[in-house]
Amino acid sequence: METKLARIAEIAKRQPKEQFTSMYHLLNKELLRQCHEELDPNKAIGVDQVTKAKYAERLEENLEDLVGRLKRKGYQPQPARRTYIPKDEKSKRPLGIAAYEDKIVQSALNKLLQRIYEQDFLDCSYGFRPHRSCHGALIQLDQIIDKQSIQFIVDADISGFFNHVDHEWLLKFLKLRIGDPNILHLIRRMLKAGVQEEGRLEPTEEGTPQGSIISPLLANIYLHYVLDLWFVKRVKRQSRGKAFMVRYADDFVCCFQYEADAREFYEALIQRLKEFNLSIAEEKTKIIRFGSKAEDWYKRNGGGRPSTFDFLGFTHYCSKNAKGTSFRAKRKTSAKKYKIKLKAFGSWMKQHRHEKLEILMATIRRKLTGHYQYYGIADNHPNLAKFKREVEKALMKWLNRRSQKQSFNWESFNQFLKRNPLPEPRIYVNIYGKRKAKAVVQ
Question: What keywords appear on the UniProt entry (predicted)?
Fold first, then answer.
């Protein structure tokens, strides 16, 4: 199977306009079994209430039945179970949890499509792609701002992107590379499967369920044609100065040398998105002066500090290098993400405060380490240290509520931490060092 998938990737790379007309037969028992084995057994379950372990009890029979339904076009995806996770302090983000068998089929289809579209996607695209992380996007953005005479940033936000993907446009885009009608029919069925919430079935006439296995790839395909190619082939060529974009899923930042180019792009972006059933969130979209000349401009025009922008959980701001001799863009944990993370930790601590201390402390160490691994980039150490102190305060608060008698004062709590130390803040990504060389600027 890996040989067949590699062959698809080879053809897609060698022939950028090749249309793949025979792929459906690759959704066979071998690939479906592989996808079943790779699925995480701890993921949330869908409307069918089937877990990986339960499906595996009759694995051969289940896979034979699934392959038979796929062959005779009798496979019908079940509605996704809608749940919610916190988006910010005031709102929640809807997620669609697919049924277990649907996860298998989505994973298999994702493997096939990914081999094709990974050859097509541009270097400015980072979201949910193999070996292309958030840190990679941040490194590339830093290199663009630092090396390409950038002075203006368009910080754009698409309003409810995953809820407004136009199914017909998406299928038109897919037909440029996928000529197999059975694959297209399967994708259409997945898109139209609907969402179930509190026993109510809601049809899905637009959008892709955020949280499903195939949704990120379909979103990337949509934005590849709507945004990426348009920016590279139209915007860059028509700009008077330099122009660059870095996109992670539906979150993107555009960089310009000249203000006129930035403003023209902003107006054109509104019209471009409108053509494809999308719109910008105007309250979250802005043009700011940002770069090596921003601080001097603000000084000449009434003082104040240069504007900042948020991208991938970090606030980007104008600063100087360690010697104070030259411009450097720096990053710190965004205030919004910082508050959300602390609130989530406090809620978790409240629910788990009665666990055995060794189990509780081991989990907290993992949580802190995970926070450091993502937010531990150059210049952000002070925010990591601040986060650790706030975690310690929350820990003391909820340990003191394990019983009616207060267990700790600060002196005894510090002794407790010496016996049960938490990991110290650590920088995992030196955004200005060797990792920077991996970034690619178009």
Answer: Nucleotidyltransferase, RNA-directed DNA polymerase, Transferase
